[in-house]
Write a structure and sequence with these properties.
The protein has about 120 residues and is mainly alpha-helical. It is built from 5 helices and 3 strands.
Length: about 120
């Protein structure tokens, strides 16, 4: 299996975000299976025609999201899907706690989340 990434230079979406979104989607759908070893930053930069810093930025974002994991000198791999779910659950719990401390009721807290989701996903 080979990771093939095409970046649309004409897109208004930043190249690192295109790369991040594509790898995340491939992992989410299982086209990149758990444990799949991703190319090195330099290798993917050469393959995709991007700067190494752009690829590194995308990898950092993916790692922060729990989509991939870096195993030091052994490489970067697609993480188990439940890692992202655990991270999302922890973020949701932190949001709920913060909303309660701010004095928001359940409806106001939910409305804030729905608005953020609309803004992020364009719904």
């Amino acid at each position: 299996m080979t990771l093939e990434i095409t970046i649309d230079a004409e897109s208004a979406v930043a190249p690192y975000e295109q790369l991040r979104a594509r790898i995340a989607e491939e992992a989410r759908t299982g086209r990149l299976p758990v444990g799949y070893k991703l190319p090195t930053v330099r290798g993917l930069a050469e393959q995709s025609g991007l700067a190494a810093n752009t690829v590194a930025k995308a990898y950092r974002a993916l790692e922060a999201d729990g989509v991939i994991e870096t195993r030091g000198r052994h490489g970067t791999y697609v993480a188990a899907a439940d890692a992202a779910a655990r991270e999302a659950a922890a973020a949701a719990a932190a949001y709920v706690e913060r909303s309660r401390r701010l004095g928001l009721d359940r409806g106001a807290a939910l409305a804030a989340v729905q608005e953020a989701l609309r803004a992020a996903y364009g719904d």
